[in-house]
Amino acid sequence: KGAVPPQELEGYVLVDAETLGDWCQIVIDNSYFTFGGKVWQMVEGYPMGVACGPSFADVYLAFYEFSFALRKFEEVRVTGVPLSSGLKYLLLLLRRYIDDIFAIVDKGSEEWKDWIWDERKGGGSDGIYPTHLVNTAGEMVERPMALTLEPGQMARYLDLLVEIKTYGGVTRLRHRMYDKRSEMQAFKGIRKFPHRSSVLDDSVKSRVIDNEVARYDKRNSG
Q: Of the residues 94, 95, 96, 160, which has the fewest C-beta atoms closer than 10 A?
């Protein structure tokens, strides 16, 4: 706080880490929704539409990703052995948005697979995500952050379908609009937008409309 000019703090609420943690716990412990005429409490995760939900996911997963990067940088400092080109690509170019990851790795290399899971406790290689976590019931969950890996020339990332294509001997990274609600069979015949009478905040409903307008604009722009 002392390093920030007072005028730049206007409009902000400053809290300590413990208070922020308590507020987050209140959100997690008090998530309710209606289904079949009954009120249910979520005991795992948090409901869609909660403003802080995406931030929870990003911060939680970023902890593992950032910790892995720090361990690798420390290895370089101690051993003097530089990072492999594949690991440099992963650390510099990996992008996350909630549960979607996009990364560029060396063509033909399989070493990136060793960086996905942290198997040090079992005598294996260092990686990003834990192989096991204990849930609130005290049960061991295997591969709690299991990923659907899509190596190849094409990958879906958020609202984009990213493709690697070669034209006239030149390889380029291209993308087009992708909407899972219209392109995935699993969503056929399912309500795809929040009901207007739902208890979601009006700002959430408004953002749904804004996002659809943005998608329409992207699909119809040159």
A: 95
What letters, b where the CB count within 10 A reaches 16 and e where it falls short, cover 191-215? eeeeeeeeebeeeebeeeeeeeeee
* pLDDT, mean over the chain: 79
- The rounded distance, in Å, linking the Cα atoms of 7 and 22 is 28
C-alpha span between 213 and 219 (Å, rounded): 10
Tokens of 194: 């929040």
Average pLDDT in the 15-36 region?
86
Tokens standing for 138? 């005290």
How many angstroms separate the CA atoms of 185 and 189, rounded?
9
What b/e sequence results for 116-125 when a residue is b if at least 16 CB atoms lie within 10 Å of its CB, and e otherwise? bbbeeeeeee
Q: Which residue has the higher pLDDT, 52 or 2?
A: 52
Structure pTM? Answer: 0.64
pLDDT at 69: 92
Long-range contacts of 196-204 (CB under 8 A, 24+ apart): 199/34, 200/49, 201/49, 201/51, 203/51, 204/49, 204/51
What are the pLDDT digits (tens) for 86-144? 888 888 878 777 667 777 776 667 777 788 888 888 888 888 888 888 877 888 888 77
For 27, the 3-state DSSP assignment is helix
Q: Identify the band that residue 148 occupies on the pLDDT scale cut at 50, 70 and 90.
A: low
**Got the DSSP string for 39-71?**
EEE-SSS--TT-TTHHHHHHHHHHHHHHHHHHH
* Residues forming beta bridges with residue 141, ordered by sequence position: 133
